[in-house]
Amino acid sequence: MIYNVALIPGDGIGPEIIKCAVAVLNKIGEKYSHEFVFQEVDAGGVAIDKYNDPLPKESIDACLNNDSVLLGAVGGPKWDHLDVEIRPEKGLLKLRSGLNLFTNLRPAVLHNSLKESCVLKSEIGDKGIDIMVIRELTGGIYFGERGRELTTLGESAWDTERYSYEEIKRIAKVAFETAMKRRKKLVSVDKANVLESSRLWREVVIEVSSRYPEVALEHMYVDNAAMQLIKDPSQFDVIVTSNMFGDILSDEASQITGSIGMLPSASLGKSNIGLYEPIHGSAPDIADKDLANPIATILSAAMMLKYSFGLEDESNEIEKDVTAVLDEGFRTPDIFTNGTKKVGTKEMGNLICSKII
Ligand code: IPM
Ligand code: MG
User: Fold this and answer.
1) Is 247 a catalytic residue?
2) Around ion ligand 2, which residues have CB less than 5 A away?
3) Is 252 in the pocket of ligand 1 (CB under 6 A)?
4) Is the dihedral of CA 279, 67, 181, 171 positive or negative?
5) In a designed cystine with 293, which of 10, 182, 248, 261 is the match (CB 3.0 to 4.6 A)?
6) Smallest CA separation from ligand 1 atom 5, residue
7) pLDDT by 10-residue block (mean), the chain, 357 residues
8) Cβ contacts of residue 246 below 8 Å, gap of 6+?
9) What are phi and psi of 137, to 5 degrees?
């Protein structure tokens, strides 16, 4: 079977980590007789340099013409001074909304062999961390009306958090379905004690819950959720939340699992086309130094196999191989601790590839 993948290496460490993920996919393809055909697509800073646009129409069309999209990272200080409309981040947001990817899955798992890198007390890490953060990705304050105006009190600026019934309902359904396949525990995070949009969020989540009586649903205010994630992350199975709260909580969840360099993500919509990317950024300070951790991108490719192509065995194999390499003690600098073996980006990629036989 042939699978067409749009590749967006992007900026900073993006190209290095994407190379590792491509090598892993090719190796898996050889083993299971699949062919992955890659089409390189420009987005982010590189696209600004070439076309003065972080996501030219040709790029989004190219993504739509493939079966799925794998992205490294976009952005960097070189483009920070630009107008917000043509900054790299805008390209990413346009890609998410252009492909209608309203669901963002961000699993946060603490690997057994990385317990040393967990910043929490060892008794807390020992209880295990395996959380699926489900972030709404095409609504809320990221896409609401915003503006600036000059008032008698001087300049003021505003952004709006707006959620429709349908937007909440569809992400809530994904969350309950996901919980059904896991430990059947769902925490919906909001700020319903203050925000009207959160009150609607809670009402709709409760409405959808009536169809999933087996799932234990709990509501949590976002400030408390941020605290509970540090206090006892083992209490969480699936978390569902808005775009903004999900952005913040998923970074927090990543840090308690050792390193942001470990965590993949999948952005999904109604069709099978998904966008798969590590949750970390382009880390321009370590770009081209063979220091970046390619595991988040490799695990994102594994998510692509599972969610877009239905290749569950192949996806599980990649996850298993990553675990095996970590168990053998190999570490990129971000997850290095005394007594382990430090390797660079390329070597980490090669080690994972070498497990696929
Ligand atoms: C993320 C990032 C993006 C976001 C930025 C780069 C726009 O932080 O994917 O979490 O805020 O969604
Ligand atoms: Mg973020």
Assistant:
1) yes
2) 247
3) no
4) positive
5) 261
6) 89
7) 97 98 98 98 96 96 97 95 91 94 96 85 88 98 96 95 98 98 98 98 98 98 97 97 97 85 94 93 96 98 97 98 97 93 98 97
8) 104, 106, 133, 134, 135, 136, 137
9) -120, -10
